[in-house]
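Q: My collaborator sent me two sequences in one message, no labels, and asked for predicted structures for both. Can we handle them in order? The first one she listed is below.
A: Yes, handling them in the order given. First sequence, followed by its C-alpha cells:
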Amino acid sequence: MDPDDGAVGCLMSILKILFIALEVLMLFNLLIFVHELGHFLAARWRGLKVERFAIWFGKPIWKKTINGVEYVMGSIPAGGYVSLPQMASMETIEGKTETAVEELPPVSVLDKIIVAFAGPLFSFLLALAFAVVVMVVGRPVGEAEATTTIGYVEKDGPADKAGLKVGDRILEVDGHKVSKFGGMGDSVTWRIVRSTGETIPVKVDRDGKELVMTAAPAKEQTKFWQRKSLRQIRISPAQSSLIAEVSPNSPAEVAGLKPGDEILEVNGKKLHHFAAVSEVIEENPGTELVMLIQRPGTAAFQVKIKPEKPVSPPDEKPRLGILWNASGKTKLVHPGAIEQVVSSVSAMTETFGALFARDTDIKPQHLGGAVKIMDVYYRLFASESGWRLALWFSVLMNVNLAVLNMLPIPVLDGGHIVLAIIEGIRRRPLSARILNSIQTGCAVLLIGFMIYIAFYDVQELPWKRSKEKPAAVKFAPRDSNRN
C-alpha cells in the first residue's frame, strides 16, 4: 500500500472522529441550553434578577456581559445554571453572587415555583419536539426489537441447562409478558436483569405448546473497580446472519463471500443467529462446510468453505474470516410522538423501580452520567443512520432531564419548589444560613455522586473498549500452492 494512501486514510479517520465529536457537543449543549433557557425566560417574565446564564461548570472558557447578564461557557461538560440571587442560595455550584440578596426586592412563592418548574417544562417540550421529528423521519429498529424468538442458546449456559431451545418464542419472563428482546420495559433482556429470585421462570411457545422453563441466571466476573455485571441466561434473539466484513486471504474471501451477504443455512440447517456458525465449526473440525447464501439482488446460492487457522493470533481456532453485523437487518419505523414520550417516562420509572427494589442487582453504579451520555451519542452518530438514532435518544434524554430535575432534592429544581412551598407554609423564607447549609450539603453529595458515576463511565469509553478488543485475525497470503 502507498504510504501516502495510509496517511490520507488516517487523516480522514481523525477528521471523522472530530466531526462526530462536534455533533455530540452541539446536541448535548442544546439539551442543557433549552433547559436553562426555561429558567432564564421565566425569571425575566416574573421580574427576577438574572446575574449569570452559564452552560457547563468550571473555569469559564468564554464569557460576555449583555444587558447586565453575564453569559458563560464553562470547561466541565456536566450541566449548566442560571444564577438567580432571589432564589435559594446556590453559591457552592454557581459561585458568590455580585448583588446582596438583601438589596433585592423579595420574590413571591409562586414566582419561585414558576421559575424552578420552567426548566423541566422546557426539557419536556424539547423531548416532544424531538419526538415529532422522529415520527416524521423515522427510527431504525433492529430485529431484536421486533421478536421474542430465541435465535441462539449458549452451550451449557443457564438457558441451555433449563431446556430452552432455538426457535422458542418467549411469552413471559419472571411472570411478566414480553413483546421484544432488547431495550427497556417489556423486553426479554430487561425482565431477566430486573428479576430478583434465585431462578427465573420463562414461559415459551414451542410448536404451539406453552411450556415453562426455570433458568438459574449467571453473571460475568468483573474487577472490583468495574461495574458489576447484571443477570443473564445467555440467549440471543433470532436475527439475520449478515456479513459486515471479510478478512483478506481468509477462507470466506476465497469462497467469494462479500459484505452484505446473508448466510441462510449451514450444512442444510437453517441459521437463526450468526453465533451458531462458530459452534458448527467446533463440532465439525477440519470439515468443509456447505452454506446457502443470499446476496441482495440475486437468487440464493451455495458455497463450500473450509475453516482455517489464522496466522495471527497463532493459537486461534479455525475460522472463516467473517465479521458479523451484530444488529442484523433493520427497518425504519415511525412511532407516534406521544408514544415515544410515554415510553421514555416508562423507562425512567422502570429504572427507579429497579434501583430501589429489594434484592435487585441494579445499583447506583449502573446509572450513567454526562460522560456516558456523550459516549452513547458518539456511538450513535458513528453508526449508520446515526443522526436518526441520536434524535430518538434525545427524546429519552430530555425526559430524563425533566424528571430527574423534578426530584425533591435541594440543588435540583424540585428542591427549589419544595423550599418555596415550605416558605409559603411558614409565611416567611428560611434563614440564609440554613438555606446555604442545605444547598451546600446537597451540592457536595450531588457532585460526589457525579464523580462516582463518572469513575465507572470513563472505563467504558472508546479508548478503553479498543484496548479490550481481541487481536485482529489475520490469514496467510494466498499463493499458487494454496486454494
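Q: And the one she listed second?
A: Here it is, processed independently of the first:
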Amino acid sequence: MKKKILKTIIEHKLITEGMHIVLGLSGGPDSVCLFSVLCQLAEDMNLTIHPVHINHKFRPGAAEEDQAYVEELCRSKGLCCRSFVYDCPAIAKEQKLTPEEAGRNARYEAFFKVAEEIRSQGVPAEKIAVAVAQNANDQCETILFRIMRGTGTDGLSGIAYKRDGEGGIAVIRPLLDITRDEIEKYCAEQRLAPRIDHTNSETVYTRNRIRLELIPYLAEKFNSNIVETVNRLGRIAAEDREYMYQEARTIFDKIRQPEPTKQAGPDRQADRAEQAEPGSQAVSIFTPPLENLHPAIRFRVYNIALDNAGMEGNVTRSHLEAVESVRISRSPSASVDLADGFSVCRAYDRLIFYRRGEHAAEDAKWKLTVMNRQEYCEFMENTQTNQLYGAFSGRVLETGAKPELRTRRDGDTITIKGGTKKLQDFFTDCKVPKIYRDEMLLLAAGSRVLWVLPSEHFPDERNRQKGRFSADYKADPSCDETIIVLEQK
C-alpha cells in the first residue's frame, strides 16, 4: 500500500520533502488508511501531519463517537487532531443547499482555516497541501454519475489528483489509484478498525445507488474490471483536456484585453479592485481571432474567460453555446444572462464576461459646491494646475433643479456641439460598452447632464482623461452670479 501510494504521489507531484499536510480524517476506512500511510511517509519525507476532523451533526450520537475515535487515533500517533463542529442540517436549510453541499463546504472551510494558520506561521503556500481520501471507486462513481447527467468530454476526466485551492494551497488525492477493496483489506491487516458510516449503505442518494447497485451490476454482467476500465477512460480524457486547455490558455492570453492604464483623475479601477471579491471581475476578449478557431478550442477559451471572471463552476454546454450566440449575433451589443449572476455581452469587437451588479456606481472622490462669483474667483486662485475640476453656469438651476453626482437615469440629455442628444445615444456614439453605462458617474441638474466624468470605459484617451462637458452650461464668471463646481477631493 505504501509503495503504491508513493508511486501516485511521485507521478503526480502531490507531496515533496518537508511539506505540511492538512489531512481530512473522517474516521472511515479511506481516511484512516491514508492517515496510516502518511504517518509512515512522514518519517521518510520529513512531513508534518495536521489531522482535521469535521462533525457535521448529520448522525447525532454516532457523529460524536466518530470524533472521539479519530481524536484517540491521533493521540496514539502522538498527533493532535483539530475537530470542528458544524450544524450542517441547519446550514443546508438556511442556505438552501443539499446536505452534501453543506457538508463539503464545511469540510473545506475547516481545512483551509487550518492551512491558513500554518501559513501565518511563516510556511509558504507551496509547502502546504490539503489531503482528502477519495479513492479509485469514488473516481469511477463520479465519472458514471457525470455520464448519466450528460457531461462533455471534460467531465469524463473525473476527479483531479491535484487542484489549486484557496491562497495557492493545493488539494491532493493520493488514494485515487487505490480501490475500496484494497483499502478495506489494508485496514483489516493493520487492525485499524475504522468507523463505518451506515448511511453509505442507504440507496437514498444517486451516488449511493451507483456504488451499491450500478457498479456491481456492470461488474457482474459486463466487465468484472469495470472500476479500472472507467478510470482508464478518465485518465485518457484528463490528458486530452489538459492539452486542449493549454492551447486555449495560450489563445486567451493573446486576445484578452489589457487592464486599463491609470489616468489623471480618480483611479476608480483600483477602487473596484480593492472592493471586488477575489477572482470576481469583468474579463474582456477580442472576438476576431475566435472566428477561425475549432469549436473545441473556442469554447474552452470561453470557459477560461468565465473562470477568470469568477464563474468557476456550474458552466454547462448550454452556457457556452449562449456565449457563442452572442459572439455571432448581428447586434454589436448583444448580451445573455448565464448562471449564478453572470452574464456575457458584446461590445463591438469584444466579448465581456462579468458578474451582474458588480458595476454599480462607486463612491466617488469628488466635491460638489455651488459658489457665488467671488467664491469662484478665490477657488481659481487656490486651484492647482493638475487638479481636475469642472465649472458650470448656475443658470441651469433656474428651473428648480439641484446639482447632484449620480449615475444615468431615463430621459437624461447632454448638449454636444450645439445639439442636444440623449445620453444613451451619446454612450452609443462613444462606443461605451453597455455593462459599464450604469456605472459611469455624471454631474447632472435634473435631466441635464453637465459633465460625464472621466472613466476608463471611454475608448478614446481624451474622454478617459477629462470626460465630456455639456457645451451649453460652461461657467462664465463675467455674467454668472452662481457657479457649480465639481472638483477632485
